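I hope you will forgive my troubling you with a question about protein structure. The matter concerns a single protein, recorded as an amino acid sequence and a row of backbone structure tokens. Please examine both parts with care and let me know of anything in them that strikes you as inconsistent. Thank you for your consideration; the sequence and its tokens are set out here:
***
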Amino acid sequence: MTEREWDKRLRIKTIGREDEDNPHYSPYEPTPYSVLQRLADSGHVGRKDRLLDYGCGKGRVAFFMASVVGCRVTGIDHSRKLIDMAKENRRASGLGDRVWLECCLAEQYEVHDENVFFFFNPFSVKVFEGVVRRIGTRGAGKLILYYPSDEYMTWLSLVPEVEPIDTIDCRDLFNGKNDRERIEVFRLRSMRDLTDKMGMDE
């Protein structure tokens, strides 16, 4: 299906790009539905998971995954305008409490029961570092990165608590030549548990 056909099926409006004034945050650009379908088919997100979409924008990832996979999703974005648009989409979608939306800075969001975390380069690597460390101090989880930036990948390679577990090739969905057209999946071990263990060993 086309992007417009998926929007119509889900009864939402997510097409279009929105500019951004904050230098640490990226403009709104929705993840292609074909990529989300590949993620849904991968088995890395299940019905019992709670997915957190950082920089959710108008909510495409949230509504697709809640509808197709059946998981619960939290979407956060620092833009009040985009969150208001996402909330209108939630009303139209009929997904009810399967999708929770909140306007806040990613680095200030308190992780609750979310255990899978989705990123489509929503902010600078400096913000990304702080967000991942914040997730890690709350417990273990799974990081999913679409079209990952070199800066994100380099930093993750230096973090001992992060283990790569899968690469989902998406090049064939487009022109087949862009190596960044992929989904990277990582396991994040609890930084809190490692800290506790270090304290016990001393």
About this structure: The helical segments are 3-10, 33-42, 60-68, 80-93, 125-138, 150-157, 191-201. The beta strands are 50-54, 72-77, 99-103, 116-119, 141-146, 162-169, 182-188. The first helix runs from residue 3 to 10.
